[in-house]
Amino acid sequence: MKAAVVVANEDVRYQEAEEPQVKPGWVKIKVKASGICGSDIPRVLNHGVHFYPIVLGHEFSGDVTEVGEGVKRIQPGQRVTAAPLLPCMKCDDCQNGNFSLCRHYSFIGSRQQGSNADYVLVPEENTVPFDPSISYEQGAMFEPATVALHGLYQNDYQGGQYVAVLGGGTVGMFTMQWAKIFGSRKVVVFDISPERLELAKRLGADQVIDTRSENFMEEAFAVTGGKGYGYVFETAGQTPTMHMAFELAANKSHVCFIGTPHVDLSFTPAQWENMNRKEFKLTGSWMSYSSPFPGKEWELTAQYYASGQLKFDPALVYRKIPMSQAQEAFQLYKTPGLVKGKILLVNED
Questions:
Q1: Is there a contact between 269 and 289 (Cβ–Cβ < 8 Å)?
Q2: Are 129 and 143 in contact, with CB atoms under 8 Å apart?
Q3: By C-alpha distance, which of 101, 6, 140 is closest to 293?
Q4: What letters, b where the CB count within 10 A reaches 16 and e where it falls short, cover 1-19?
Q5: What would the pLDDT profile of 268-284 be if each residue is shown by its tens digit?
Q6: Exposure of 244 in the CB half-sphere (CA atoms within 13 A)
Q7: Does pTM top 0.90 for this prediction?
Q8: Whole-angstrom Cα distance, residue 349 to residue 340?
Q9: Which residues contact 341 (CB under 8 A, 6 or more apart)?
Q10: Dihedral sign computed on CA atoms, order 272, 274, 279, 282
Q11: What does the alpha-carbon distance between residue 2 and residue 336 come to, in Å, rounded to a whole number?
Protein backbone atom coordinates (compact mmCIF):
# COMPACT_ATOMS: atom_id res chain seq x y z
CA MET A 1 0.00 0.00 0.00
CA LYS A 2 0.95 3.67 -0.04
CA ALA A 3 1.43 5.65 3.17
CA ALA A 4 2.64 9.06 4.33
CA VAL A 5 5.68 7.92 6.30
CA VAL A 6 7.60 10.18 8.67
CA VAL A 7 11.20 9.12 8.01
CA ALA A 8 12.99 12.00 9.78
CA ASN A 9 12.26 15.36 11.36
CA GLU A 10 10.25 17.50 8.89
CA ASP A 11 10.47 14.69 6.34
CA VAL A 12 7.19 12.97 5.38
CA ARG A 13 7.39 10.74 2.32
CA TYR A 14 4.48 9.21 0.41
CA GLN A 15 5.86 5.80 -0.37
CA GLU A 16 5.26 2.09 -0.47
CA ALA A 17 4.65 0.53 2.94
CA GLU A 18 3.76 -2.91 4.18
CA GLU A 19 0.00 -3.40 4.07
CA PRO A 20 -1.32 -4.54 7.47
CA GLN A 21 -2.74 -8.06 7.59
CA VAL A 22 -5.87 -8.65 9.61
CA LYS A 23 -5.47 -10.76 12.76
CA PRO A 24 -7.90 -12.35 15.24
CA GLY A 25 -10.06 -9.76 16.96
CA TRP A 26 -8.93 -6.91 14.71
CA VAL A 27 -10.54 -5.01 11.83
CA LYS A 28 -8.96 -3.72 8.61
CA ILE A 29 -10.17 -0.33 7.42
CA LYS A 30 -9.65 1.35 4.06
CA VAL A 31 -8.96 4.95 5.06
CA LYS A 32 -10.95 7.69 3.35
CA ALA A 33 -9.99 10.73 5.46
CA SER A 34 -7.40 11.27 8.18
CA GLY A 35 -7.14 14.48 10.20
CA ILE A 36 -3.96 16.19 11.34
CA CYS A 37 -4.21 16.64 15.10
CA GLY A 38 -2.41 19.38 16.98
CA SER A 39 -0.37 16.65 18.67
CA ASP A 40 0.90 15.48 15.27
CA ILE A 41 2.52 18.82 14.46
CA PRO A 42 5.44 18.62 16.94
CA ARG A 43 5.82 14.95 16.04
CA VAL A 44 6.70 15.99 12.50
CA LEU A 45 8.22 19.44 12.99
CA ASN A 46 10.00 19.12 16.34
CA HIS A 47 11.47 15.60 16.69
CA GLY A 48 8.34 14.46 18.54
CA VAL A 49 7.87 10.88 17.29
CA HIS A 50 8.62 7.78 19.34
CA PHE A 51 10.56 6.19 16.47
CA TYR A 52 11.32 6.44 12.75
CA PRO A 53 9.84 5.48 10.38
CA ILE A 54 6.27 6.00 11.60
CA VAL A 55 2.87 6.45 9.97
CA LEU A 56 0.93 9.04 11.98
CA GLY A 57 -2.84 9.60 12.00
CA HIS A 58 -5.44 8.83 14.67
CA GLU A 59 -8.50 10.88 13.62
CA PHE A 60 -9.89 8.99 10.66
CA SER A 61 -12.81 7.39 8.88
CA GLY A 62 -13.20 4.73 6.23
CA ASP A 63 -14.79 1.46 5.22
CA VAL A 64 -14.24 -1.95 6.78
CA THR A 65 -12.69 -4.26 4.18
CA GLU A 66 -11.89 -7.31 6.29
CA VAL A 67 -12.43 -8.64 9.81
CA GLY A 68 -10.31 -11.07 11.76
CA GLU A 69 -11.29 -14.35 13.34
CA GLY A 70 -13.69 -13.91 16.25
CA VAL A 71 -14.97 -10.48 15.21
CA LYS A 72 -18.77 -10.45 15.47
CA ARG A 73 -19.95 -6.85 15.96
CA ILE A 74 -18.27 -5.33 12.90
CA GLN A 75 -18.98 -6.35 9.31
CA PRO A 76 -17.15 -5.66 6.03
CA GLY A 77 -18.67 -2.68 4.22
CA GLN A 78 -19.52 -0.71 7.36
CA ARG A 79 -18.56 2.96 7.50
CA VAL A 80 -16.50 3.44 10.65
CA THR A 81 -14.11 5.47 12.71
CA ALA A 82 -12.08 4.14 15.63
CA ALA A 83 -10.87 5.12 19.07
CA PRO A 84 -7.06 5.26 18.79
CA LEU A 85 -6.18 4.44 22.41
CA LEU A 86 -5.02 0.88 23.15
CA PRO A 87 -5.15 0.61 26.96
CA CYS A 88 -3.58 -2.33 28.74
CA MET A 89 -6.94 -3.24 30.39
CA LYS A 90 -5.04 -4.69 33.38
CA CYS A 91 -3.77 -1.80 35.53
CA ASP A 92 -5.77 -0.19 38.34
CA ASP A 93 -6.80 2.76 36.17
CA CYS A 94 -8.11 0.52 33.40
CA GLN A 95 -9.88 -1.73 35.90
CA ASN A 96 -11.65 1.36 37.24
CA GLY A 97 -12.66 2.50 33.76
CA ASN A 98 -10.15 5.36 33.63
CA PHE A 99 -8.62 4.25 30.35
CA SER A 100 -7.26 7.71 29.50
CA LEU A 101 -5.00 7.44 32.55
CA CYS A 102 -3.47 4.05 31.68
CA ARG A 103 0.32 4.25 31.92
CA HIS A 104 0.91 1.11 29.88
CA TYR A 105 -1.08 2.06 26.80
CA SER A 106 -0.28 1.99 23.13
CA PHE A 107 -1.78 4.38 20.60
CA ILE A 108 -2.63 4.10 16.94
CA GLY A 109 -0.77 6.76 15.01
CA SER A 110 1.98 7.47 17.52
CA ARG A 111 3.20 4.25 19.16
CA GLN A 112 2.12 2.04 16.28
CA GLN A 113 1.25 2.60 12.64
CA GLY A 114 -1.65 4.98 12.06
CA SER A 115 -4.18 6.13 9.50
CA ASN A 116 -2.13 8.32 7.15
CA ALA A 117 -2.14 5.40 4.75
CA ASP A 118 -4.36 3.35 2.46
CA TYR A 119 -5.25 0.96 5.31
CA VAL A 120 -5.16 0.88 9.09
CA LEU A 121 -5.72 -2.00 11.51
CA VAL A 122 -7.67 -1.55 14.78
CA PRO A 123 -9.16 -3.85 17.43
CA GLU A 124 -12.85 -4.66 17.13
CA GLU A 125 -13.64 -3.00 20.48
CA ASN A 126 -12.11 0.28 19.23
CA THR A 127 -14.16 0.34 16.05
CA VAL A 128 -17.13 2.73 16.01
CA PRO A 129 -19.65 2.35 13.15
CA PHE A 130 -21.57 5.43 12.08
CA ASP A 131 -24.59 6.12 9.93
CA PRO A 132 -23.94 6.20 6.16
CA SER A 133 -25.60 9.63 6.04
CA ILE A 134 -22.51 11.00 7.85
CA SER A 135 -19.72 12.02 5.48
CA TYR A 136 -16.20 10.66 5.73
CA GLU A 137 -15.00 14.19 6.51
CA GLN A 138 -17.36 14.39 9.46
CA GLY A 139 -16.48 10.84 10.47
CA ALA A 140 -12.82 11.80 10.70
CA MET A 141 -13.77 14.35 13.34
CA PHE A 142 -15.25 11.94 15.87
CA GLU A 143 -12.13 12.09 18.02
CA PRO A 144 -12.15 15.87 18.69
CA ALA A 145 -15.90 15.69 19.35
CA THR A 146 -15.34 12.96 21.95
CA VAL A 147 -12.50 14.95 23.55
CA ALA A 148 -14.92 17.84 24.01
CA LEU A 149 -17.64 15.65 25.52
CA HIS A 150 -15.17 14.02 27.91
CA GLY A 151 -14.34 17.52 29.16
CA LEU A 152 -18.00 18.09 30.05
CA TYR A 153 -18.10 14.87 32.04
CA GLN A 154 -14.84 15.73 33.80
CA ASN A 155 -16.29 19.11 34.74
CA ASP A 156 -19.42 17.55 36.30
CA TYR A 157 -21.53 19.41 33.77
CA GLN A 158 -25.21 20.05 34.39
CA GLY A 159 -27.50 22.26 32.34
CA GLY A 160 -29.15 25.52 33.28
CA GLN A 161 -26.09 27.73 33.77
CA TYR A 162 -23.99 30.20 31.81
CA VAL A 163 -21.11 28.53 29.97
CA ALA A 164 -17.89 30.13 28.70
CA VAL A 165 -15.86 28.33 26.03
CA LEU A 166 -12.40 29.84 25.65
CA GLY A 167 -11.00 29.09 22.21
CA GLY A 168 -12.87 28.68 18.94
CA GLY A 169 -10.85 25.80 17.54
CA THR A 170 -12.26 22.41 16.64
CA VAL A 171 -12.52 21.15 20.23
CA GLY A 172 -13.98 24.49 21.34
CA MET A 173 -16.71 24.31 18.70
CA PHE A 174 -17.70 20.84 19.83
CA THR A 175 -17.54 21.81 23.51
CA MET A 176 -19.96 24.66 22.81
CA GLN A 177 -22.35 22.34 20.99
CA TRP A 178 -22.32 19.67 23.70
CA ALA A 179 -23.04 22.31 26.34
CA LYS A 180 -26.10 23.40 24.35
CA ILE A 181 -27.26 19.85 23.69
CA PHE A 182 -27.21 19.12 27.42
CA GLY A 183 -29.14 22.22 28.35
CA SER A 184 -27.08 25.34 29.01
CA ARG A 185 -28.72 28.64 29.88
CA LYS A 186 -26.42 30.45 27.45
CA VAL A 187 -23.10 29.48 25.83
CA VAL A 188 -20.56 32.18 24.95
CA VAL A 189 -17.49 31.48 22.77
CA PHE A 190 -14.37 33.62 23.20
CA ASP A 191 -11.74 33.93 20.45
CA ILE A 192 -9.53 36.40 18.58
CA SER A 193 -10.53 35.28 15.06
CA PRO A 194 -13.60 36.89 13.46
CA GLU A 195 -13.92 33.87 11.15
CA ARG A 196 -13.99 31.42 14.04
CA LEU A 197 -16.46 33.55 15.97
CA GLU A 198 -18.74 33.66 12.94
CA LEU A 199 -18.50 29.88 12.66
CA ALA A 200 -19.37 29.55 16.35
CA LYS A 201 -22.55 31.53 15.75
CA ARG A 202 -23.48 29.33 12.79
CA LEU A 203 -23.00 26.23 14.94
CA GLY A 204 -25.29 27.59 17.64
CA ALA A 205 -23.34 29.77 20.08
CA ASP A 206 -25.72 32.11 21.90
CA GLN A 207 -23.11 34.85 21.88
CA VAL A 208 -19.50 35.34 20.80
CA ILE A 209 -16.90 37.73 22.22
CA ASP A 210 -13.79 38.97 20.45
CA THR A 211 -11.11 39.09 23.14
CA ARG A 212 -9.09 41.64 21.15
CA SER A 213 -11.63 44.24 22.27
CA GLU A 214 -10.51 46.49 25.13
CA ASN A 215 -13.84 46.04 26.91
CA PHE A 216 -14.36 42.35 26.26
CA MET A 217 -14.35 41.43 29.97
CA GLU A 218 -17.10 43.95 30.72
CA GLU A 219 -19.10 42.51 27.82
CA ALA A 220 -18.53 39.01 29.13
CA PHE A 221 -19.79 39.78 32.62
CA ALA A 222 -22.74 41.75 31.28
CA VAL A 223 -24.05 38.51 29.74
CA THR A 224 -24.32 36.97 33.21
CA GLY A 225 -25.54 40.04 35.09
CA GLY A 226 -22.11 40.44 36.62
CA LYS A 227 -22.02 37.02 38.29
CA GLY A 228 -19.63 35.17 35.98
CA TYR A 229 -19.94 31.75 34.40
CA GLY A 230 -21.03 28.59 36.16
CA TYR A 231 -18.97 26.47 33.77
CA VAL A 232 -15.75 27.52 32.07
CA PHE A 233 -13.99 25.37 29.47
CA GLU A 234 -10.51 26.36 28.35
CA THR A 235 -9.82 24.64 25.01
CA ALA A 236 -6.98 26.66 23.47
CA GLY A 237 -4.07 25.79 25.77
CA GLN A 238 -2.88 29.39 25.68
CA THR A 239 -1.62 31.42 28.65
CA PRO A 240 -4.09 34.33 28.15
CA THR A 241 -7.12 32.03 28.01
CA MET A 242 -5.98 30.05 31.04
CA HIS A 243 -5.70 33.29 33.01
CA MET A 244 -9.05 34.38 31.58
CA ALA A 245 -10.72 31.21 32.86
CA PHE A 246 -9.94 32.19 36.46
CA GLU A 247 -11.37 35.67 35.89
CA LEU A 248 -14.59 34.56 34.19
CA ALA A 249 -15.50 31.89 36.73
CA ALA A 250 -18.46 32.61 38.98
CA ASN A 251 -18.56 31.79 42.67
CA LYS A 252 -18.68 27.99 43.10
CA SER A 253 -18.00 27.60 39.37
CA HIS A 254 -16.59 24.55 37.59
CA VAL A 255 -13.49 25.23 35.48
CA CYS A 256 -11.99 22.65 33.11
CA PHE A 257 -8.71 22.85 31.20
CA ILE A 258 -9.12 20.76 28.05
CA GLY A 259 -6.41 22.65 26.15
CA THR A 260 -2.79 21.60 26.57
CA PRO A 261 -0.22 24.34 27.28
CA HIS A 262 3.10 24.29 25.43
CA VAL A 263 4.97 26.98 27.37
CA ASP A 264 5.61 27.63 31.05
CA LEU A 265 2.53 28.98 32.79
CA SER A 266 2.51 31.25 35.84
CA PHE A 267 -0.15 33.13 37.79
CA THR A 268 0.15 36.23 39.92
CA PRO A 269 -1.04 35.82 43.52
CA ALA A 270 -4.10 37.94 42.66
CA GLN A 271 -4.94 35.76 39.66
CA TRP A 272 -4.56 32.52 41.60
CA GLU A 273 -6.54 33.88 44.53
CA ASN A 274 -9.64 33.80 42.30
CA MET A 275 -9.79 30.07 42.98
CA ASN A 276 -9.65 30.64 46.74
CA ARG A 277 -12.09 33.51 46.92
CA LYS A 278 -14.61 32.08 44.45
CA GLU A 279 -14.17 28.51 45.72
CA PHE A 280 -14.39 27.22 42.19
CA LYS A 281 -13.43 23.68 41.26
CA LEU A 282 -10.61 23.28 38.74
CA THR A 283 -10.03 20.07 36.82
CA GLY A 284 -8.22 18.80 33.78
CA SER A 285 -9.42 16.58 30.98
CA TRP A 286 -7.32 14.09 29.04
CA MET A 287 -8.45 12.26 25.90
CA SER A 288 -11.96 10.83 25.63
CA TYR A 289 -12.69 7.46 27.19
CA SER A 290 -15.01 5.87 29.76
CA SER A 291 -16.42 2.48 30.67
CA PRO A 292 -17.44 0.33 28.87
CA PHE A 293 -14.57 1.05 26.47
CA PRO A 294 -14.31 3.17 24.42
CA GLY A 295 -17.14 4.91 26.26
CA LYS A 296 -20.29 6.95 26.08
CA GLU A 297 -18.32 9.80 24.48
CA TRP A 298 -17.99 7.74 21.29
CA GLU A 299 -21.49 6.27 21.42
CA LEU A 300 -23.15 9.67 21.89
CA THR A 301 -21.07 11.32 19.17
CA ALA A 302 -22.33 8.73 16.69
CA GLN A 303 -25.90 9.23 17.95
CA TYR A 304 -25.92 13.03 17.88
CA TYR A 305 -24.08 13.23 14.56
CA ALA A 306 -26.73 10.98 13.03
CA SER A 307 -29.59 13.03 14.50
CA GLY A 308 -28.06 16.28 13.27
CA GLN A 309 -28.03 17.82 16.74
CA LEU A 310 -24.23 17.75 16.77
CA LYS A 311 -23.52 19.87 13.74
CA PHE A 312 -20.74 19.72 11.19
CA ASP A 313 -19.87 22.81 9.17
CA PRO A 314 -17.50 22.66 6.17
CA ALA A 315 -15.62 25.59 7.72
CA LEU A 316 -14.40 23.24 10.46
CA VAL A 317 -12.09 21.91 7.73
CA TYR A 318 -9.37 24.33 6.67
CA ARG A 319 -8.30 22.25 3.68
CA LYS A 320 -8.63 18.77 2.23
CA ILE A 321 -5.24 17.69 0.87
CA PRO A 322 -4.37 14.44 -0.95
CA MET A 323 -2.52 11.95 1.22
CA SER A 324 0.29 12.06 -1.33
CA GLN A 325 0.89 15.71 -0.36
CA ALA A 326 1.21 15.12 3.40
CA GLN A 327 4.66 16.72 3.46
CA GLU A 328 3.23 19.95 2.02
CA ALA A 329 0.32 19.80 4.46
CA PHE A 330 2.59 19.71 7.52
CA GLN A 331 4.71 22.56 6.18
CA LEU A 332 1.64 24.83 6.36
CA TYR A 333 1.85 24.69 10.16
CA LYS A 334 5.22 26.42 10.09
CA THR A 335 3.42 29.71 9.35
CA PRO A 336 1.85 30.84 12.66
CA GLY A 337 -1.87 31.51 12.43
CA LEU A 338 -2.21 30.29 8.84
CA VAL A 339 -4.14 27.08 9.50
CA LYS A 340 -7.58 27.82 10.93
CA GLY A 341 -9.45 24.58 11.37
CA LYS A 342 -8.68 20.98 10.54
CA ILE A 343 -6.52 19.74 7.69
CA LEU A 344 -7.80 16.42 6.35
CA LEU A 345 -5.56 14.09 4.36
CA VAL A 346 -7.75 12.23 1.90
CA ASN A 347 -7.19 9.12 -0.17
CA GLU A 348 -8.38 9.59 -3.69
CA ASP A 349 -9.77 6.52 -5.42
A1: no
A2: no
A3: 101
A4: eebbbbeeeeebebeebee
A5: 999 999 999 999 999 99
A6: 26
A7: yes
A8: 27
A9: 169, 170, 315, 316, 317, 318
A10: negative
A11: 30
